[in-house]
Description:
heterodimer; A: alpha+beta; 5 strands; B: mainly alpha; 77% helix
Amino acid sequence: MPSKMLHYATICIVVTMLFIASQGDLTLYIHPRYILFTVVSVSIGLAIYTYTLFSSDKTGGKAAKNQTTILGYLPLLIVAISALILSPVSLSQLLASDRSSESTQNSVEKTSHSTLDTFSTDLTRFSIADWNNLLASGATQDQIVGKQAKLEGFLYEDNTGQLFIARFRLTCCAVDATPLAVPIVATQELEALELGSWVELEGDFVDTATSSYQFKLDVKSFTQIEEPDEPYIF
Amino acid sequence: MNLSVFSHRKSSASIITALTILLGLSLQTFLNVTLPDRLQDTVTLTLGILYEALPFVFLGVFISVIVQQYVPQHILLKLLPRKGFLRRPLLSLCGTFLPVCECGNVPLARGLIAKGLKPAEVMTFLFAAPIINPVTIYTTTQAFPADPIIVVVRVVAAFIIANAIGYLFARYTEKELLTEDFQGYCATHGETEEPKTGIKKRLQDFTSSFVEEASLLMPALVGGSIIAGAIQTTLPRNILQTISSEPVLAIAALIGLAFIISICANVDAFFALSLSSIFPTSAIVAFLVFGPMIDIKMLALLKTTFKTQVLTYVSLFVLLSCFATGLVVHYAF
């Protein structure tokens, strides 16, 4: 019986994967480059599992005895039920806070801007990834201070209480998610927001010589927004 | 048991499963059920590892069953050199033709052992193939275009370490290396007994073998994913940064991270890239060699095949080898 339960639990997981893929939510777990391969592979797996379940001849009598007890299957059952019932959601601000130190270690591709943009004052076309890259690259005061930015992301605090706006970047799956973060000057209005809230911020960068983060975004205005359909940066 | 009773029970179980799936997905869609942040992150990370690995495991099982059912043992053994010292290096290069990540290689390795290859020979394939394959080499080159030494050292170290493992374990018998369950499996899944007749019979044999093999690996995969997911949310990574300036500690830290994070070998270079601005090249190389060979998820999968003691020795050997590789890179380049 446990082995049958294992078959059904596996089918539950595979059906859930296909369901969330059809809803466009599989990218909350894995990088988009894997979606096609994943859907094809698990669809074939599901077809084989279903066929085996309904075919009259089972294992041809040569199966090795499966010694696993019900306790051995329990984690699989728990994971199958969790996958089935829980709604897919993006990683929380708590994880961003845990991994905050990695946000300054990222080296990401520039997105839409050109090198010439860095000589402009209005850098509202820069994304969080661009700013994270620029700040992590050891940019000088001339390149940063006074530049205007318009950023979308969620709010989190690191263990020193510094407030950031950030988005997670995924290279493979959720397990390697790293926050791409930009430090911001906290205001009373911003601090009143719940950590993890998604916001659109506008402001310009200032030099805070005394802080461990030299350059911070001084927020002039902000709007609370819904989490985007694709919260991660790939 | 009466066949009609069996069939009735099977139908009832299938209907209950279908209804459970329907109910679960309805809850997921309409009630938007979530957990407190920390617990929800653990679930998301666990499912992330599982969803990323499962397609590769299915692919590996698929190839493994094809090898077991349709490649006659004498042809497989004829294709390979007879002498172990020639056979092992050749097997360690087989990843070049089978660009499957490490999770998919486990079922394939099981299939090769069941087909008559020695465990030590298959170990060389198992530990080298995730790195010495075109996808991993390509992504590493893409991630570190300015550091060709990383790619070269990664491939050469994987080849040497995998073959050293094969050499060290070549003197041990299957009984000493393999779990009793897997020895039983090999006894029943070796050479194809008789030519199969009819497409339906062949299909049934293929699908039942696929399900049986996948079902053996699923509890291990899920168990490994849970442990790796839970550690991610409980172990703060901030401590890594504080020790990155000391080469020996940096190598140890990234080996530890590779063990915990259980990331797919095909893309781990991009993750390593994000660490390269703070960690030295020696630590990056150690991360890139150790991770594809040994991590939590991989150990859970390997536990279905190899004895715990064997896996302990292999893990220690890989650990020390990767550490040495890191030190060589640190002092030589």
